[in-house]
Amino acid sequence: MRGRRVPTADSRRALPATALLVLLLPAVASCGQDVSASAEPTPAAQAPTASPTGAATVGPGRPGSPPPRATPRSPAPERGARDVRGGGFATSVPGSDAPDRKADTGPVFALGEDGPDLEEIERLVEAVERIAAQQATEDPLATGGSMAAAVGTFSYRYFADGTVAPDPAWVAANIRTEQVPILGAVTGHEVLFPQLRGALEEVVARGLADSIDPDQFGGCYVPRFIGRDPAQGLSLHTWGIAVDLNVPGNQRGTVGEMDRTVVDIFQRWGFAWGGDWGYTDPMHFELARLVRAR
Q: Is 4 contained in some domain?
């Protein structure tokens, strides 16, 4: 037939590295890890009625309020501006975002210029299968505990800008947008809200609501590495269990302007405060333990 070209054997054999990656990633997902998620946020991560990927857009304040005046640590990347660098599996919550209290969060693989490292991907798959079997028998994770069991584990992809895209299934099952006092709409892990709401309600009850500016809220669920550096491990913002408050006046390395009574209230509600770290981060409050209201 005229105009029809029959592929040669050589043309059928030639597959670029990018095509190889496309073929391999679904195989990894079938073994318990979804590393083929979209690089952009899923609507489920942002909507309160929904059931990563990419850096999530966080509820910056009360409905109708202006955007935060300062969110230097979590700017939203431009669409299509990121390159996939690799992925991993978060086996447990790291102890803290503090520089001296990091913990291994599971295997991570990188994508080289020549395509995926097959040995690293095989190692990742084996780790995912081992963790899944461990969870199926209800054995505790070696570095876990009540917090790790509450927030769950997930696979993820990471990008050149240091942001992370957790497994959409984990996001849909755990990440919510809810209303809380003072801040308004906040997107975070469902386990966070009882304690965050309790702390903020006490702040209001004690007449300290003006100590927290909702327009200076730096976010909660912002999936990324600490300092956007893969070598530093995942930030607790990736799990949606940390909040940054009054960002402009509470920068890294300073004593900060945070009201110390507010700090005491948050600590009583199970949060650790970054102002106590050797290299301080006084805007940062992270869920350190699970507590219940008396």
A: no
Nearest to 252 by CA among 58, 70, 59: 70
User: In this structure, is residue 200 part of a structural domain?
Assistant: yes
Tokens of 105: 């969060």
pTM for this entry: 0.66
CB 39 within 8 A of CB 187: no
Are the C-beta atoms of 89 and 74 separated by less than 8 Å? no
What gap in Å lies between CA 78 and CA 80, rounded to an integer?
Answer: 6
**Between residues 30 and 271, the one the model is more confident about:** 271
Q: Is residue 292 part of a domain?
A: no
pLDDT in tens, 159-205: 999 999 999 999 999 999 999 999 999 999 999 999 999 999 999 99
Count of domains in the chain? 1
Domain membership of residue 65 as a residue range: 27-73+83-287
User: CA 232, CA 73: separation in Å to the nearest integer?
Assistant: 15
- Could you tell me if residue 1 is inside a domain? no
